[in-house]
Write a structure and sequence with these properties.
Elements lengths: L2 E8 L9 H5 L6 H12 L6 E8 L5 E5 L4 H9 L14 E3 L1 H11 L8 H15 L1 E3 L4 H9 L10
Parallel strand pairs: 4-5
Antiparallel strand pairs: 1-2, 2-3
Helix pairs in contact: 3-4, 4-5, 5-6
Amino acid sequence: MADTIEVLVPGGQANPGPPLGPELGPTAVNVQEVVNEINEQTAAFDGTEVPVTVTIEEDGSFELEIGVPPTAALIKDEAGFETGSGEPQKDFVADLSIDQVKKIAEQKKPDLLAYDTKNAAKEVVGTCTSLGVTIEGKNPREFKEQIDAGEYDDALAA
């Protein structure tokens, strides 16, 4: 019967210590092999907490399921701030470029309901609204209207 372990690890920086080591130690799996595989698959999320599920078989084989960090965490990491604004419609804490929005949208797309990068970007912009983050110096609501009007179709093409 397979064991399942769910942990949050910093992207590309997992190690054999806690939280992985103590969970994997009593199993038949090669801990360093699991750590290396996790680091390889999470390298794109450098340092951001990534949800990982490890399924371990009795023979020591394993499968990984790598989740995607929350949109807010990706925005904070990309824009370089710790906490959102207390008054997100008045006080803005950071500004993202359209390229940064596209990058986050592409990272999150597998977890979103959006069927293309443009609609995934609109979901990212929605999170920017609640965090107090502008895009290209514009209020996120105004920016979303411009996306809807097709002004960024070329920049958001998949």
